[in-house]
Design goal:
single chain, about 110 residues, alpha/beta, 3-stranded parallel sheet, 3 strands, disordered N terminus
Length: about 110
């Protein structure tokens, strides 16, 4: 296996794993109001699921065997502690790749 600058021997090649991504939305709340947004918070009766629901979503993701967890929203960095805990849990449960979709404002 040839490694590029962002890989280690324990991390699969992104090209090998892109077909096995799973999306987990931490919150639909956002600190921006982009006109092009396809997930406006107003469309969600409950913008932020409780931690127990996120835990169940993570369980389902782990059981699916997918390799790349994509954490999105809304804006997941609004819930910094939850976000860091979710990433820590995912990595400790063997998820090799965790991606974050963010507007990068925070």
């Amino acid at each position: 296996m040839t490694l590029n600058h962002s890989q280690t021997a324990d991390t699969p090649d992104a090209e090998e794993s892109h077909r096995t991504k799973g999306l987990l939305r931490l919150t639909m709340a956002c600190n921006e109001r982009c006109l092009f947004c396809n997930v406006p918070v107003e469309d969600y009766e409950r913008p932020t699921p409780p931690p127990e629901e996120i835990a169940l979503d993570l369980d389902a993701f782990v059981e699916s065997g997918e390799k790349t967890l994509v954490i999105s929203g809304g804006e997941p960095t609004l819930l910094r502690r939850r976000l860091l805990a979710l990433i820590t849990q995912a990595r400790s449960r063997g998820i090799p790749l965790v991606e974050l979709q963010t507007n990068a404002i925070l």
